[in-house]
Amino acid sequence: MNHINLATVWLGGCSGCHMSFLDLDEWLFTLADQVNWVYSPFMDVKVYPNHVDVVLVEGAIANRDHLHMIYDVRERSRILISFGDCAVTGNVTALRNPLGGATPVLERCYLELSDHHAQLPGDDGIVPPLLDRVLPVHTVVPVDIYLPGCPPSAERIRAALEPLLQGTMPHLQGEQIRFG
Ligand code: SF4
To answer: Which fold has domain 4-98+129-177?
Structure first.
């Protein structure tokens, strides 16, 4: 069996989806025997590689770095999985959208609610500027598989990955596509 190149990406999310991935427990050993891990927050790899077969993308697109990253991820990956409710709908990350843009959000957090040294964060190249609107992944680049849940359970993650390891697309249904 050919090993697939597997990646996971962490964008605008709380990392809970990646924590759920770790809940795969001993099946992680089975997975490790069947894939080449090529990029993940679990690894010390700085640049998203070419020729990724499957990538799970956690989180929404919330800042300029996320935007650049998701274009690279899409261009270099064959199957992109929108991993968790924040990636699929914006979810928690998008709760700031009704405030009407990046500036009111930053002013509220760093000026109005500050007790000491109120100042807006900003350092080009270090603090990525927020987008005015948090975007679900599929509104920026095409998505191949939606894996909802906050977070998706380990069972659900496995149900999505097992067919891909066999070279077929998963057909998630019923409880496996419930939000929240
Ligand atoms: Fe965290 Fe839930 Fe968003 Fe996953 S979907 S990143 S667990 S808030």
So the answer is: Rossmann fold (3.40.50)
